[in-house]
């Protein structure tokens, strides 16, 4: 009896995330990204662990463009599929997943849902200056991604902070506030989980075809390689970033985002 590749992918992904999370707790390798005092600093292992550095190739060129890569992989798979497998239903599934991605990470009648969750769970909008000083500003500056400085928003710098001995000339440069504290759901785990499960589901359709053209075989190989990259990225994220609960909620949202397509 053959095993459904979707179940195999789900089990493998879950095991990878669980192992990485347990490892991060046992060896204290993760960075609490919602702590405003720590989040602007380099990861405490960045000098000895390549993937603890946010500038690593995997994060810079793949994870930050995860849905773009996932969409490209799907489209190559769909466009090269045999005519009877090139259905509108598959495109609808991709459209639904794209909408889920937009709602959670970019826009939902204003701020994205992940940002709303952070605020609702006690998050604060904080600005970190070049000197390392951290102070709170109104939420709208985070939700609208507005850069602030003494010149553009002098009223935010009035008070004891402006007279602090921590102040340096570089602190006059514009800074972009970020939401910290609260519950910072791992957006990477969410998106990578949803992307990997979606692509495996699409690969499953190809596996049911009797013959493949050379172009389609290449597209399937591209999708398999990308799924493998997403699994590696899930592992590195689980080891080096976010608290265990933040990764767990990102995983649950990713699974839920994929399961929406099962209703289509």
Structure description:
With 264 residues, the chain is mainly alpha-helical. The protein has helices spanning 5-26, 57-62, 66-79, 88-105, 113-120, 140-143, 187-207, 214-240, 244-259; strands spanning 123-128, 134-136, 178-181. A 3-stranded antiparallel beta sheet has the order 2-1-3. A hairpin with a 5-residue loop joins strand 1 and strand 2 (134-136). Helix 1 runs antiparallel to helix 7 (187-207), helix 7 packs antiparallel against helix 8 (214-240) and helix 7 (187-207) runs parallel beside helix 9 (244-259). The mean pLDDT is 87.
Features:
264 residues, mainly alpha, 9 helices, 52% helix
Summarize the structure.
This protein is mainly alpha-helical. It is built from nine helices and three strands; from the N terminus they run αααααββαβααα.
**Poorly predicted runs of 5 or more residues:** none
Strand order in the sheet with the most strands: 2-1-3
Strand-pairing-aware structural class: mainly alpha
| Count of helical regions | 9
Overall mean pLDDT stands at: 87
Q: What is the helical fraction, as a range of percent? A: 40-55%
